[in-house]
Amino acid sequence: MPSTLPIADPAPADGLLPPTVRDGADRRAFGVYLHVPFCRVRCGYCDFNTYTGDELRGAKRSDYAGQAILEVEKAGRILHDADLPDRPAATVFFGGGTPTMLPSTDLAAMLHAVRDTWSLAAGAEVTTEANPDSVDAAYLRELKAAGFTRVSFGMQSAVPRVLATLERTHDPARIPLVVRWARDAGLDVSLDLIYGTPGETLGDWEQSLDAALLQEPDHLSAYSLIVEDGTKLARQIRRGEVAQPDDDTAADMYELADRRLADAGYDWYEVSNWAKGDAHASRHNLAYWQGHDWWGVGPGAHSHVGGVRWWNVKHPAAYADRILAGVSPAAGRETLDSETRRTERILLAVRVRDELSTAELDATGRAAVAGLIADGLVDGRAALAGTMRLTLRGRLLADAVVRRLLGD
């Protein structure tokens, strides 16, 4: 969740939604995202809406769960007043920040509020992100008992030097411990990796892949490091203190990851995500890419319901003020027109394996398909069967594929 919010129309203080959100609602799944904006330290590359203890300006971590629960309850009333069909939460995702900086009882209370407000669908996916040094075996057992089904650990790298550049605080030796504790608790495990860190070599990256695969996670994400303006890392690069990440090296790292993961039995289902079979793909993230509905709870959280998108005020203190005053915490809102929705559909769906049908393309997009096949960016056999499936080269150049499909 980037720390900079978009500029759009003011959001209504009551948070009420227009009647148009009902259109097609019975064909869209519903999920809940709960943002926990606290971190022990701020990593130099991070542009997310997170706060360390000395940045809270009066907001208290101990009060946060109660405030989030108030927003959940308000969300339930707003969706009911919009006359939307009753939809249980198919997925719930706690992100951050570091959600596991809160006591497990706080996360359990927030999940209980979601269950009370909407209920949970049968087999609902309930995930929390966690830093490896923020949980122990007892904490993970408590999450499982509360109804969590999945934990995503921010491993990032197995190389201490790379972790130091990223300013990550955990010891790589802790990864096997937390994975074992999660397994023993009955939780599915995902590991998040970052590649392309300044100074990271292909050998370093291979070491991280080896260490991750040794744990046999159910799911693995591998994200190329993006140097965001305004971050400490961007300033270090500008001053020449660390090297600018190299795009060619990052491409080599992606190709290595895809090869190693495929050999280990993982299927790619989105450009940066692999799973051991479709059952272990992140259903919550797929809902974003597929254009379903979700309510985002917490400071800076984004929501989308039926083509209406909004985002909350950023700072925990401002969020608390609005929640306790009984008004919507939303800072801005926009209603997407049909062209914007079509563009976003192509932008997101093309990244997901077999998600975008050629029938969804307009004349410009359909005309571009033959050239994309000829250039080795789209699988020809899949396209002839009516499905846009990126090749490995196409995944590396996914943005270029989108531009050609849209005629940009």
From TrEMBL:
Main location class: cytoplasm
Record key words, sorted: 4Fe-4S, Chaperone, Cytoplasm, Heme, Iron, Iron-sulfur, Metal-binding, S-adenosyl-L-methionine
UniProt keyword Metal-binding present: yes
Annotated SUPFAM superfamilies: Radical SAM enzymes
InterPro entries hit by this protein: Aldolase_TIM (IPR013785), Coproporphyrinogen-III_oxidase (IPR034505), Elp3/MiaA/NifB-like_rSAM (IPR006638), HemW-like (IPR004559), rSAM (IPR007197), rSAM_sf (IPR058240)
SMART domains: Elp3 (SM00729)
Residue ranges of domain Radical SAM core in the record: 24-267
Function per UniProt: Probably acts as a heme chaperone, transferring heme to an unknown acceptor. Binds one molecule of heme per monomer, possibly covalently. Binds 1 [4Fe-4S] cluster. The cluster is coordinated with 3 cysteines and an exchangeable S-adenosyl-L-methionine.
Membership in a protein family: Belongs to the anaerobic coproporphyrinogen-III oxidase family. HemW subfamily.
Protein name according to UniProt: Heme chaperone HemW
